[in-house]
Amino acid sequence: MKIFKQIAPLKAFLKDIKQQSKSIGLVPTMGALHQGHLTLIRASKAQNDVTVATIYVNPTQFNNSADLQKYPRSLDTDTQMLSEVQCDVVFCPDDHEMYPVESTITMDFGQLDKVMEGHFRPGHFSGVGIIVSKLFHIIEPDNAYFGQKDWQQFAVISQLKNQLMFNLKLHSVPTLREPDGLALSSRNLRLNAEQRQHADVFFKALTKAQTDLKAGASLENVKNDVKKMVENIPGTRLEYFEVADSQNLNLLSNVSESTTPIMCIAGYVGDVRLIDNMFFELILI
User: Which among 61, 65, 212, 274 is least buried, having the fewest CB atoms inside 10 angstroms?
Assistant: First the structure.
């Protein structure tokens, strides 16, 4: 496994790969890797000749400086995990390499970044768009892999890819979960033992919402029930629960308004913010 910290030698290495007509898969990460990330690596390895994983905690996508400082970092462990799954290349630059001058541009994704995560984390998706654009330009992958847990991010990156005409294919890989349903996330590392016991409430709320909506409950009542379910647990708070069209992220007042609805949830366990989602399974008659 080759490890690069600078752009120039990475581009030189990948240029040789491309000249051999070999395909390149990209898995962008912010480190603190878990089995969900490794699932993305395996998906890339199955479809590409060379897989590149990036490890970079991107400051421009954090609207909360404390959250940036607290984000877990474990580069040595991460590179060991990537080596064990036979990742081919790791790119782990520092801030100066990725932002040699202060970033002054912003990106606006219309409706996609005005709701849910975009509403509660203003500027977040602009930062995501900037760093993903840089990685696409540097690595020029044939395929790029992202986890379904961050579905709104995937929708934003899909728009980025289409409007800036990046020549690659995007892949969303299903969320990997703990046995109790908790979505794997780097932020889970910040949960203490008691908080970890409560963190599965978001998955349980999504599951119950799906059951109730299928049974004919109104979305308004389901939203109220989700809020009660989450906030009945001491120290746990709901930030939002929404049902949206999974393609354009228009918020729905009824699941029947879309053929591809997705339920999205975010909240806090202590001071740790977690997100999750679940596609609503339409009843076909």
Answer: 65
